[in-house]
C-alpha cells in the first residue's frame, strides 16, 4: 500500500460482524515463553507503526469490539469512526498486562494524559458515543441492521478526502505527524 500511488485512502474494517478487532489471543500468548512474547510484541508494535506511517489517510471503521491490540490498531489510524454501540478499551491491565503496541503513546494524544491514564489504569470499556465525547473517535453513528454503520460513515469520509489534492493530503498528514513529535 505504501508505494501504490493509486491508493488515496485506506479504510480498515472487520469481516466479522460485531467485532473490529478483539486483540491478541491471550490463550496462545500464555503458552509463549518470555522471548516469544517479546518477539510477538515487537512485531505487533512494528505493524501498528507501519499503519501509522502509511503516507495516505487511514480510517478505522469500528463496528463492534475494539479491545486491547484492536484499539491500538484503531489508534494507529489517522481517523476513527465508531458505531455508538461499539465497545472499546485498552483492557490489558485487567489481565495483568500493559498495552504494548503503542496505545500508551497514542491514546494520550487523542484524549489527553489524565483521561488516558484513567482508561488504562482501570481497563474500562467505553462505547462509541463516550469515545466520541472524549475525542477518541471522530464520529459516532447509530448502528444499522447490517452492522456496518461505522464502515458506511468511513466510506463517506473517504469520499470527502478523495477529491482533495493527493500530494497536499499526504504532506498535511506528514506535517501533522512530525509536529506531534516536536
Automatic annotation (TrEMBL):
Family annotation (CDD domains): crotonase-like
PROSITE patterns the UniProt entry points to: ENOYL_COA_HYDRATASE
GO terms for MF: catalytic activity
Stored InterPro entries: ClpP/crotonase-like_dom_sf, Enoyl-CoA_hyd/isom_CS, Enoyl-CoA_hydra/iso
Gene3D superfamilies, A to Z: 2-enoyl-CoA Hydratase, Chain A, domain 1 (3.90.226.10)
Biological process according to GO: fatty acid beta-oxidation
Pfam families for the chain: ECH_1
GO cellular component: mitochondrion
Family to which this protein belongs: Belongs to the enoyl-CoA hydratase/isomerase family.
Classification via PANTHER family: ENOYL-COA HYDRATASE DOMAIN-CONTAINING PROTEIN 2, MITOCHONDRIAL, ENOYL-COA HYDRATASE-RELATED
Protein name: ECHD2 protein
